Amino acid sequence: MKEEEKTVHEGLIIEAFPNAMFRVLLDNEDLILAYVSGKMRRGLIRVLVGDRVKVEVSRYDSTRGRIIYRLPDKDSSD
C-alpha cells in the first residue's frame, strides 16, 4: 500500500490550545490547525507561541497538519 503524499511547509505558531493543538500561520499565508508529532513528544521538545516550525500537511486536508520540527531561533548565539 502506498503511503500518503504529504507536503512540508514552514510556519509560525500564533496560538496554543489546551489540548496540545496549535494554530500555525504558514509562510504561504495559510492558517492551519496542527498537532505535535509523536517523536517530538517522546523527545520532550517543547513548542511555544512564536516558535518557527516545519509542518507536514496532507494533500487531502490542507487545514490540518503535524508539527515535525522546531526550527532554531535566529537570534540565539550558540
TrEMBL record:
Residue ranges of every copy of the S1-like domain listed in the record: 1-72
Compartments, record wording: Cytoplasm
InterPro entries, alphabetized: NA-bd_OB-fold (IPR012340), RNA-binding_domain_S1_IF1 (IPR006196), S1_domain (IPR003029), TIF_IF1 (IPR004368)
Keyword annotations from UniProtKB, A to Z: Cytoplasm, Initiation factor, Plastid, Protein biosynthesis, RNA-binding, rRNA-binding
GO molecular function: ribosome binding; rRNA binding; translation initiation factor activity
Family annotation (PROSITE patterns): S1_IF1_TYPE
GO cellular component: cytosol
Main location: cytoplasm
Pfam families: eIF-1a
SUPFAM superfamilies, sorted: Nucleic acid-binding proteins
PANTHER family, sorted: TRANSLATION INITIATION FACTOR IF-1, CHLOROPLASTIC
Oligomeric form and interacting partners: Component of the 30S ribosomal translation pre-initiation complex which assembles on the 30S ribosome in the order IF-2 and IF-3, IF-1 and N-formylmethionyl-tRNA(fMet); mRNA recruitment can occur at any time during PIC assembly.
Family, as annotated: Belongs to the IF-1 family.
Name under which the protein is recorded: Translation initiation factor IF-1
